[in-house]
């Protein structure tokens, strides 16, 4: 124990904590990943990059590192501003990094047409019209000319 009475490595959201920490621990502590094992799996799968380079979960990160974390549908770009070794609340976690992520892409403006509820299964003719409308055109059928 040190003179201040706190144990070594006892920095959750404290001020003078360690200078480096494992990447998977920081991702979990900063609430960018739900579990440490999910953070480790993301690193192993190549979904996490530090300063543009793929990283392993056990590599150490320092203040100022840029992390790119890919998740389904978007990429989160953060710059580490504070080292965490323990999981903290969401408001404190947001103060430990600067988020430079681009805005998510807007969803499609027009939804595909839907059938009215209770009209049953589409007929072959209606199904072919839907396919043509969606751009997946099939060869014309003699039934379509009726």
Describe the structure.
By secondary structure, this protein is of the alpha+beta class. The chain has a domain at 21-99: Structural Genomics Hypothetical 15.5 Kd Protein In mrcA-pckA Intergenic Region, Chain A. The chain has four helices and seven strands, in the order E-H-H-E-E-E-E-E-H-E-H. It has helices at residues 23-29, 36-44, 90-94, 124-134; strands spanning 21-22, 48-50, 53-54, 60-61, 66-71, 74-80, 97-99. The strands form two sheets. The protein has a five-stranded antiparallel sheet. Strands 1-4 form a two-stranded antiparallel ribbon. Helix 1 packs across helix 2. It is elongated, with a radius of gyration of 25 Å.
Strand order of the largest sheet: 3-2-5-6-7
* C-alpha end-to-end distance: 89 Å
CATH topology of the domain at 21-99: Structural Genomics Hypothetical 15.5 Kd Protein In mrcA-pckA Intergenic Region, Chain A
Class by SSE composition? alpha+beta
- CATH class of the domain at 21-99 equals Alpha Beta
Please report which band the strand proportion falls in: under 5%, 5-15%, 15-25%, 25-35%, 35-45% or over 45%.
Answer: 15-25%
For this structure, what is the CATH homologous superfamily of the domain at 21-99?
A: RNA-binding S4 domain
The coarse overall form would be elongated
What ranges have pLDDT less than 50 throughout 5 or more consecutive residues?
1-11
Q: Over the alpha carbons, how many angstroms does the gyration radius reach? A: 25 Å
Mean pLDDT across all amino acids: 82
Q: What percentage of residues falls in helices of 4 or more residues?
A: 10-25%
**Can you count the helices?**
4
* Largest sheet composition: 5 strands, antiparallel
Count the strands? 7
At CATH level 2, the architecture of the domain at 21-99 is: Roll
Order of helical and strand elements: EHHEEEEEHEH
């Amino acid at each position: 124990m040190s003179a201040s009475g706190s144990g070594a490595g006892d920095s959750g959201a404290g001020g003078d904590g360690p200078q480096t920490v494992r990447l998977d621990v920081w991702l979990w502590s900063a609430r960018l990943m739900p579990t440490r094992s999910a953070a480790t799996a993301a690193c192993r799968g190549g979904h996490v990059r530090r300063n543009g380079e793929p990283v392993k979960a056990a590599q150490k990160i320092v203040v100022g590192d840029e992390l790119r974390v890919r998740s389904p549908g978007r990429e989160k770009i953060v710059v580490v501003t504070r080292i965490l070794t323990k999981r903290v609340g969401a408001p404190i976690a947001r103060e430990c990094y600067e988020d430079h992520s681009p805005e998510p892409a807007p969803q499609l403006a027009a939804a595909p047409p839907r059938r009215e509820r209770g009209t049953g299964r589409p007929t072959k003719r209606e199904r072919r019209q839907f396919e043509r409308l969606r751009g997946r055109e099939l060869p014309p059928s003699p039934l379509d000319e009726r």
